[in-house]
């Protein structure tokens, strides 16, 4: 396109790959976390218990094992047309791990909402999805904001684990850079620069979370 060669997913790497994995993990995992939190609050025991079993099962596994399963083991159990690219399988595994932890954070925020809020909405004749979208979730997300920002920070730092399944994110690219003979002397500079990049992104996420907390606390008054 426009005279440029196509670059497949297997050739992606560096900071761009780190950001792509982080953003797509959060975009997929956050809505899934809300769904899991709502299912775990279901009044039907078989739905709430099954969802709780799924969440606790995923939370009991290390992220490395989930990434390895989705990248290496899963293709043996799926037909060829359903396997997809390894990068997207890894993102799905990371999103599942993110959603399991975030679901408990959202559920904790929901438990912090006074029961009278939802009862008053029911008394006004509001339907379930109206109660959830207009009453429950806005207050739950405000309660869960600090833990949510912390989970985003953890997910950004955990993108470095994809090196285990063969992807050259920013840390692996730095290792490859000073691994050449002419740059072997600069390993301190490489790691210092990578640490600075992580600090910039993590510190920015933390400050943005603090800004949201202040804004929401102002809106309460």
From TrEMBL:
Compartment(s) where it occurs, according to its Swiss-Prot or TrEMBL record: Cell inner membrane; Cell membrane
Q: Which residues cross the membrane?
A: 12-39, 60-81, 190-211
State if Cytoplasm is listed as a keyword: no
Keyword list, A-Z? Cell membrane, Membrane, Transmembrane, Transmembrane helix, Transport
What domain of life does the UniProt record list for this protein's source?
Answer: Bacteria
Q: How does it sit in the membrane?
A: Multi-pass membrane protein
Pfam families membership: BPD_transp_1
The chain positions of domain ABC transmembrane type-1 read 15-206
Q: InterPro entries from the xrefs?
A: AA_ABC_transptr_permease_3TM, ArtM/GltK/GlnP/TcyL/YhdX-like, MetI-like, MetI-like_sf
Name the protein family: Belongs to the binding-protein-dependent transport system permease family. HisMQ subfamily.
- Name of protein: Amino acid ABC transporter permease
The species this protein was found in: Mesorhizobium cantuariense
